[in-house]
Specification:
Blueprint: H1 9-14, E1 18-22, E2 25-30, H2 34-43, E3 46-49, E4 54-59, H3 63-70, E5 83-89, E6 95-105, E7 108-113, H4 118-127, E8 134-137, E9 142-148, H5 152-157, E10 172-173, E11 186-188, E12 197-203, H6 207-218, E13 224-225, H7 228-238, H8 272-281, E14 285-292, E15 303-305, E16 311-321, E17 326-334, H9 337-340, E18 345-350, E19 353-360
Parallel strand pairs: 3-13
Antiparallel strand pairs: 1-2, 3-9, 4-7, 4-8, 5-6, 6-7, 9-12, 10-11, 11-12, 14-17, 14-19, 15-16, 15-18, 16-17, 18-19
């Protein structure tokens, strides 16, 4: 299968980005360096092309009921202009994908799914759309530009008459007439970095002009393009899961620490019966975050050991934190209080050496409370 490109591909090439295949797309890994781009987001403002993400629209009088049956969170709590994080689950409780759900109107919802899962998710929602809403896959029609960092509100405010400071976390709006942004663009107060930030959904045909407008207004704030490399280090410092690493078809939301988006009391949804049994029976393992105390970078698949040297888990994601200058990671451990509680000591086996680490509460790059 041919590798796809986003509407901003030519810009990445012009900027000299190092490109690689990711989720079937030719995507920028870095432009300057991962550390430089990471710090730009933490200290100023950085911009990501995440147009490879998938967009499914659910419409019609049964839209809300259909989405409610497909996802774990309670979409009846949404109102126009509000978004929420959720997962879709298999009948056995395993996670099909994690996603964002946007309520555009009482009869129109937007599901934003992971790029690597677009085809899988599309088949899954269609084969389980028993309530009868109309679902359309418009992933190729849309681009998504993430503007993240403490200066991101200044950049976005320069582009719109909308009061950006009034957009609450997990809320969204559209530009007003006369703005320099396209009228049908969505300004969403969401992101994957742990920083203040916005995600701009626009038509693919508008992507280049929106990107250029963002950079023109952001020049005075030291704006930088950011690749997938820093996106991963940023999300790990924030303690955010990555599908395919930390959550998969074989993990359930409770063990992944996503019980807060799993609303069994809302009524039946796909996987709810199994999840109810899992919750009642108790968990065998839990996903934890940790910070290395000794020099070493944890990688996915590395064993996690207890103080007696017994393997009690496995690393699912790991990297070197540019903020801490220490290794950090996520991994599953046995559901023991001495392993899952922040402050607990564990060991990561790195190239045959057991290196000490401390279980910590995300975000990892900020002082522990």
């Amino acid at each position: 299968m041919a590798v796809k490109t986003t509407p901003l591909h030519s810009i990445h090439r012009q900027l000299g980005a190092r490109m690689m295949e990711f989720a079937g797309y030719d995507m920028p890994v870095q432009y300057s360096s991962i550390i430089n781009e990471h710090l730009a987001v933490r200290e100023r403002v950085g911009v990501f092309d995440v147009s490879h993400m998938g967009e499914f629209f659910v419409t019609g009088p049964d839209a809300e009921a259909s989405v409610q049956h497909l996802v774990s969170n309670d979409v009846t709590k949404l109102y126009d202009g509000k978004a929420m994080y959720s997962v879709m689950c298999h009948e056995d409780g395993g996670i099909v994908d994690d996603l964002l759900v946007y309520r555009l109107a009482d009869d129109k919802f937007l599901l934003v799914v992971n790029a690597a899962n677009i085809d899988k998710d599309w088949e899954w929602v269609n084969t389980r759309n028993t309530i009868g809403a109309e679902i359309t896959n418009r992933s190729d029609e849309y681009a998504l530009i993430a503007v993240q960092g403490p200066k991101s509100p200044d950049v976005i405010q320069a582009l719109t008459d909308v009061d950006v400071s009034a957009i609450k976390f997990y809320h969204f709006t559209t530009p007003t007439a006369g703005d320099s942004l396209p009228a049908d663009l969505i300004i969403s107060r969401t992101g994957y970095t742990g920083e203040t930030g916005f995600e701009l959904y626009c038509k693919a045909s508008d992507a280049v002009s929106v990107w250029k407008a963002v950079f023109a207004e952001g020049e005075e704030f030291g704006i930088q393009p950011v690749g997938l490399g820093a996106r991963d280090t940023l999300r790990l410092e924030a303690g955010f899961c990555l599908y395919g690493n930390d959550i998969t078809d074989d993990t359930n939301p409770y063990e992944a620490g996503l019980g807060w988006i799993t609303k069994l009391d809302k009524g039946e949804f796909y996987g709810s019966t199994a999840l109810g049994r899992i919750k009642e029976a108790g968990l065998d393992r839990r996903l934890v975050a940790f910070v290395m105390e000794e020099r070493g970078i944890p990688r996915g698949g590395y064993p996690i050991l207890d103080e007696s040297g017994n393997q009690v888990g496995v690393v699912t994601s790991g990297t070197q934190s540019p903020i801490l200058s220490q290794g950090i990671g996520l991994g599953y451990v046995q559901n023991r209080e001495d392993l899952r509680t922040p402050g607990s000591k564990v060991f990561i086996e790195v190239r045959g050496r057991a290196l000490s680490a401390t279980v910590a509460k995300p975000p990892l790059h900020r002082p522990q409370s």
